[in-house]
Every structure is written in structure tokens, then in C-alpha cells.
Amino acid sequence: MLGIVLLVGITVLFVTGLVSYAAYNPDLARVNDQTPDKGILGFYLFAWPTNPYWLYRVTQGLHVTLGITLIPVLLAKLWSVVPRLFALPPARSLAHALERISLLLLVGGGLFEFTTGVLNVQLDYVFPGSFYPLHFYGAWVFFAAFVAHAALKLPTAVRSLRRRREERGEPVPRAPEPGELVSPRPLPPTVSRRGALWFVGGASLLLLVTTAGQSIGGALRRTALLAPHGGADPGGGPNGFQINKTAAYAGIDAAETGEEAWRLVVTGRTGTVRLSRAQLLRLPLHSSALPIACVEGWSTEDQWWRGVRLRDLAALVGYDGDPPDLFVESLQRRGAFRRAALRANQVADPRSLLALYVNGEALSPDHGHPARIIVPAAPGVLNTKWVARLTFGDL
């Protein structure tokens, strides 16, 4: 039963994880090769859509919440098969040796994926190396072993479930299989199988209730006790919603973001223009109601952004028709995603803005003053803050 739950749950995790990677690294144009490493397994990548605008909020919220909810199931499954991991001899045949190797990759890969995922969600990631390629390649290794193991064990799982339906009460203990480790002096059982399943299910339900609110939002946000961005908004006023990276952490110098010093550099087909914030404010301004959704699974409510459309900025440098891809560079000095790439379809969406205001007030330093990117359905880190340069086209 634990295996069947993991079969369904891990398949959903793998698919939503691949979807998240596609959202981060849309591929195709050379400009997008500057996003996190694709590697040879990026064959499936596609242009990430902008509709519905809450798409990434749902897919990544599901990925993180389900992953945390499955932790008790994974640990219980490993606990239930610990004796089999140490069965002797370690390999009785070539086929058995291959199965044992796949089991090693399955257990090691599963622990690695869940551990790195939890560290990224809870501790802003402390694992050595970049989280994105490590988690991505680890997922492929783990899922390949998972598919092989599921194919080998599915007939056994089906037989077990069928037998369970035919039984009444607790099942009769089965005889040990050849080569299986069996305790010579077993102690009396302390919990029934049904009790163990209730315990695992209760633990998963507890994790679900104390995590899911960070991506659902509203009143349920206060129930996200185990989520770093759970609870109420961290501050008051128009800028009082969640952030991951403060201006101080990013190394932003207030002097370089002031009205006199800051200039936005926009480069494209016809050359380069430099715009002050005052000049940007004289361009046509538009508004969009969009959330920010992060890879850690948390998201904000819809915020009311106001600024200049990205496609209008593309028109300033020679792209009057369909705008091209966009490469964005930030003033930040520390932290990942100082640069980000957006696909042409994201630039063309009329809701995609270089935002100057949020909820009727100028952006605060922590929310990206003097200007930031906001794009529907894009991961939070692609909504670059403290924007310094926009380069349109495959340059």
C-alpha cells in the first residue's frame, strides 16, 4: 500500500518538477542558454506559457506541498524494507545484482531528492553546489531507478492488494522468502499494520495542513506553521508582502538606486537608450494584478503592479512588431539569478511589466526599487528586482 501511494505521488512530483525546470529554463534562443544549466536532459523544454497567470503558483505549490506530505510515507516504506536491504548474499545472479544496484540508486536518490528539496524550502538551501542542476539531475537518476523498481514490483503489489481485499482483519503472517532476513527471536508486535498505516497517514496529514497554506493563501496562510513564508504578511502597507531576498542581502547600495544615479539601459536592434525613472514615468503606464510564486512553494496574493509594458520597451529599440527574447540584468551583487532570461511570448504578454509601483505606492527597496520585472506565471526569481539593463534579441 505504501508503494502504491509512492508510485502515484512520486510520479506527480517528477512531472511537476520537470514543469518547474521548464519554467526556469525555456531553451530555444541563445540568450536563454544563460539561465541555469539545461544539460543533455533538457530535450523536453518548451516555451513556458503566461496563461493562466497562476499556473506556476499551482504547479510548484503542488510539487512542494506533496513532496513534504510524502516524507512519512517514504520513511515508512524504507523502514518496512530495511531487512531486505541487508539480505545475503548481496547478489545471487546477474539479474539480482542489477536489481540491487537499481535499489541502491532508488533509496539513495530518493533520500537525496527529498533532503535537498527540504533544505531548499526550509533553510534557503545549504547543500554544497547549486540546487537547480543537482536536484534536476538527481531527479532523473532517482526516477529511472524508480521506474525500473516499479516495473519489477508492480505484479507483487497488485497481488498483495488483491489478497488484502480477500482477507478479513489482520492478515496471516506470511512465510519468509528464500534469502530473507528473519529475526530468530522476534519480540511481540507493538503496532498492527493498520495502526502503522494510520500513524503514517496522520503524520502526512499533519504535514499537509501545516504546509499547504503558504501556496493556497488567504486565511489558510496562518496554518502554514512549518513553512518559512507561512503566517501573515511580514509587514504592513502596500509593500508589506513576502520576499525572499532583501536589498541588504543582495548588496544594493541606496546611492546607486537614487533618482540622480540610476539609469535603465535598454539595448536592441536599433541601439541603446538610457532612461531615468522620471523618463519611464512619462511613458504609457499599465497595470496588472499578479502574484509572486517561488520555487520554495510559497506565493503571495495578487498584487496590483503598475509600470511600463516590456513590449513597449522593446519597441523603443526597434521591435515594433513581435518582440524577441529578453535578457535582464540586476544591480544585485550577491545571490543567484542576478541575470534572467525571458521568452518572446512572456515579453509580448500585455501584463508583463517593468513595474515601478505596487499597490499604489512606489516599490520599496526590498521589492526592487527603482524598477523590477513582473511576468504572469513566471517563477519568482525571473521577476528580477533592481533592474539595471534590458537586452532584447538574440545578441
Would you give an account of this structure?
GO terms for molecular function: oxidoreductase activity. It comes from Streptomyces corchorusii (Streptomyces chibaensis). This is Oxidoreductase molybdopterin-binding domain-containing protein. 41% of the residues lie in helices and 12% in strands. With 395 residues, it is of the alpha+beta class. The protein has 2 domains: 222 residues, no CATH class; 146 residues, Sulfite Oxidase, Chain A, domain 2. β7 and β8 form a beta hairpin. The longest helix is centred in the middle third of the chain and has 36 residues. The relative contact order is 0.14. The model has no long low-confidence stretch (mean pLDDT 86).
Question: Quick recap of the structure?
Answer:
The protein is 41% helix and 12% strand. It is an alpha+beta fold and 395 residues long. It folds into 2 domains: 2-223, no CATH class; 247-392, Oxidoreductase, molybdopterin-binding domain (Sulfite Oxidase, Chain A, domain 2, Alpha-Beta Complex).
Descriptive tags:
5-stranded mixed beta sheet, 12 helices, alpha+beta, Sulfite Oxidase, Chain A, domain 2, single chain, 5-stranded antiparallel beta sheet, 395 residues, OxRdtase_Mopterin-bd_sf, 41% helix, 12% strand
Number of strands: 10
Q: What is the gyration radius calculated from CA atoms? A: 25 Å
Structural class: alpha+beta
Strand order of the largest sheet: 2-1-10-5-6
Spatial shape: elongated
* H/I helix tally: 12
- How would you characterize the largest beta sheet? 5 strands, mixed
Low-confidence stretches: none
What average pLDDT do the residues reach? 86
Order of helices and strands: HHHHHHHHHEEHEEHEEHEEEE
How many domain modules? 2
Please bin the fraction of helical residues.
Answer: 40-55%
The proportion of strand residues reads 5-15%
Report, as a whole number of angstroms, the end-to-end distance. Answer: 54 Å
InterPro entries: Mopterin_OxRdtase_euk, OxRdtase_Mopterin-bd_dom, OxRdtase_Mopterin-bd_sf
Organism: Streptomyces corchorusii (Streptomyces chibaensis)
GO molecular function: oxidoreductase activity
Keywords: Membrane, Transmembrane, Transmembrane helix
